[in-house]
Design goal:
The chain is built from four helices and 14 strands. It has about 230 residues and is α+β, with helices and mostly antiparallel strands. It has a single domain, classed as Alpha-ketoglutarate-dependent dioxygenase AlkB-like (Jelly Rolls). The strands form three sheets. Strands 2-3-12-9-14-7-6-5 form an eight-stranded antiparallel β-sheet. It binds 2-oxoglutaric acid and fe (ii) ion (FE2). Fe (ii) ion (FE2) binds next to loops. The site of 2-oxoglutaric acid has 10 residues, from strand 7, strand 13 and strand 14. Keywords: Dioxygenase, Oxidoreductase.
């Protein structure tokens, strides 16, 4: 029997995928190095953004686990109302917050947090301790313009590290002092870190989109006493 190159290639890929799913409890998800693969963009007013595209690869199973509400240890997703400045607003997305010392819902998230803590320790001076998870079910889920200014971040510089899973969504940032927004399309496995004065001097948002969009989960790692 003759095989074309493509058929032979396809079956080899099938076997490789099945083998990795079978052998590896993470389903083949991997964190790449940080180091010099992280690119910094300096914004105005002492704010900056670091981006590391594709930091996490092969994370389809991780996404499915975080989205699955029936499995043991499932993420306790809840609808959110949030105090923003002087108002309480409806936030159309699901959230879950893992405080310091609460085990994260997947060992890969613990690995990610620890890798971020190690990479940023010289500059940040403290580890990332908490994880906020957000679930944007489709393009009509979003988060309005805000800074993460609850706690020390109201007055102090800090870092918020976001790992994005699932469908790509835009994370937009704009200076509070006025001026153009900057936009990042955050796709599967991308890392974005907001640093310096970013929470105080800039705002960020995940805008709604009319384009058909699959679900996205974002994981935000923060330091102690920062929301
Ligand atoms: O989903 C994101 O990437 C951003 C979430 C966010 O800004 C927040 O929860 O404070
Ligand atoms: Fe935020």
């Amino acid at each position: 029997m003759e095989h074309t190159f493509d058929e032979a290639y396809d079956s080899a890929v099938d076997i490789a995928v099945q083998a990795s799913l079978f052998d590896d409890p993470t389903g083949g998800a991997r964190l790449g190095p940080l180091g010099t693969s992280v690119r910094r963009r300096v914004l105005t007013d002492g704010a900056w953004v670091d981006v590391r595209p594709g930091w996490l690869t092969g994370s389809e199973l991780l996404f499915a686990d975080l989205a699955d509400t029936d499995r043991p240890g499932a993420v306790p997703w809840r609808a959110e109302r949030r105090q923003m400045y002087d108002r309480v607003v409806d936030v159309p997305r699901l959230v879950s917050f893992y405080d310091q010392d609460v085990p994260l819902p997947d060992p890969l998230l613990t690995e990610a947090r620890d890798a971020l803590s190690a990479h940023y320790l010289p500059e940040l001076g403290e580890p990332f301790t908490t994880a906020g998870l957000c679930f944007y079910r489709d393009g009509s889920d979003s988060v309005a313009w805000h800074g993460d200014t609850i706690g020390r971040s109201r007055t102090e510089d800090t870092m918020v590290a976001i790992v994005s899973l699932g469908a790509a969504r835009t994370l937009a940032l704009r200076p509070r002092s006025g001026g153009p927004a900057v936009r990042y399309a955050l796709g599967h496995g991308d890392l974005l870190v907001m640093g310096g004065s970013c929470q105080r001097t800039w705002e960020h948002a995940v805008p709604k989109t009319a384009r058909p969009t699959g679900p996205r989960i974002s994981v935000q790692f923060r330091t102690r006493g920062v929301r």
